[in-house]
Structures are given as C-alpha cells and as structure tokens.
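dumping this here so i dont lose it
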C-alpha cells in the first residue's frame, strides 16, 4: 500500500511531538492531536489509516474514541498506548478492536514495527478484495485493476486456465490463493464440475492417500 496517513493522539504535548517527529523522519505523513474530540473530527474524514492513541486522556479516553470510530464504520487501525498497564485493560482494548497495545514509554522502533505489520495486513486485505472482484466477475473490474501486480496475476490466470497443466499457487495466509484457484477453475474447461477445496494441512501424512483415493476395508487393522 502507499505510505499510510497516521495521527498521534496524546494529551502530553512532548510525547506526541517527539513520536510524530520520529515517524516523519521515517517518511510517514503524520498529524498530532491533544484530545479525543479534535482527533475524532479529523478521523471522521475517513482517510486516516493508523491512529497511535493514548488510553488515558482528559474527557473521552482512547478506548472510547476507538470504539466510537470503529462503530462509525471508519477503517482506521488503532495502536493504543498507556503508562498504566493492566491485563484487564489490554484484553478490553483488543476485544474492542485495537490492533495492539503498547506500554509507555514506547520506543520508536516498536511503533515502526507495529506500523509495518498494520500496513502489511491492510495491503493483504486490499489485494484480497480486488481478487474477490475478479472471481465474482465484478463489473468494476476495469476500474479496480489498475495495479500492475493485479494485471499480471489476471494475465497468468487467463494463460493457465485453458491448459491441462497442474498449477501450484504459493503465498502467505490471506493473500488470496483460494480465490485465484476458484478463478482458474471458473475459466477452465471443467467449470461445470464442482470445485472442492481440501485443507491438506489438517490431514495426517500417512492418511493422505486413503483420504483422497479410499482404502480397502480392514486395511488399517493391526
């Protein structure tokens, strides 16, 4: 994904200025706010990717702000910070939708690591949505396929779908391997036959053959 838009929310001026400055040195676009109300006004525009937010602030807390934002349907990932750590607070923050929870004083390296993880996850979600549109034959394909990597995948799918070749699709979890497989099946000569996904990782190696091809009664008796 492109460089994310980040906001830092903390009632302590020194903390938010130092953190914002360090993130900007890494090339990120960063704004900072001293209270939840002004931050919510900014978040309501819907173009903030990541909010690094203190939990304890005068008035509306960071958790209350996050809950309000997420309930409004705004797609912003929250990294929460607090100097008052407790297991209950951490559990509550994660339950309500926080990406993660950091203990003050937070180190820039830790924040940068978390931001990278969020960017990776948001990028995967975007790719997955585009691939789903491919599979469903969305009429907006011409509009959404403006990424060269997606164009390349589309061309490869078209190329292999009409062949009898065995196709190996690799990639991390969540990158859309199953979606691509369904698309290949949909465009192949076997499109009228059922598409049957199998989770091979859940089948013991010594039972793989019998699961796929069956076995003679009594084959496993001692």
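and the seq i came up w/
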């Amino acid at each position: 994904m492109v460089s994310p838009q980040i906001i830092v929310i903390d009632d302590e001026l020194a903390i938010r200025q130092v953190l914002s400055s360090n993130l900007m040195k890494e090339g990120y676009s960063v704004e900072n706010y001293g209270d939840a109300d002004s931050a919510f006004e900014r978040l309501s525009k819907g173009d903030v990717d990541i909010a690094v937010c203190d939990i304890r602030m005068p008035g509306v807390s960071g958790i209350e702000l996050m809950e309000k934002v997420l309930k409004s349907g705004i797609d912003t990932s929250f990294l929460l910070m607090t100097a008052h750590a407790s297991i209950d607070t951490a559990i509550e923050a994660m339950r309500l939708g926080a990406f993660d929870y950091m203990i003050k004083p937070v180190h820039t390296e830790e924040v940068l690591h978390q931001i990278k993880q969020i960017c990776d996850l948001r990028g995967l979600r975007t790719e997955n949505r585009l691939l789903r549109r491919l599979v469903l034959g969305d009429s907006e394909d011409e509009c959404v396929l403006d990424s060269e990597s997606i164009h390349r995948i589309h061309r490869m799918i078209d190329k292999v779908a009409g062949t009898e070749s065995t196709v190996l699709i690799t990639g991390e979890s969540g990158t859309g391997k199953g979606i691509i497989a369904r698309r290949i099946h949909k465009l192949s000569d076997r499109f009228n036959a059922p598409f049957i996904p199998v989770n091979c990782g859940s089948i013991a190696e010594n039972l793989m053959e019998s699961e796929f091809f069956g076995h003679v009664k009594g084959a496993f008796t001692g």
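Residues 138-213 form a domain with the Rossmann fold fold (CATH 3.40.50.300).
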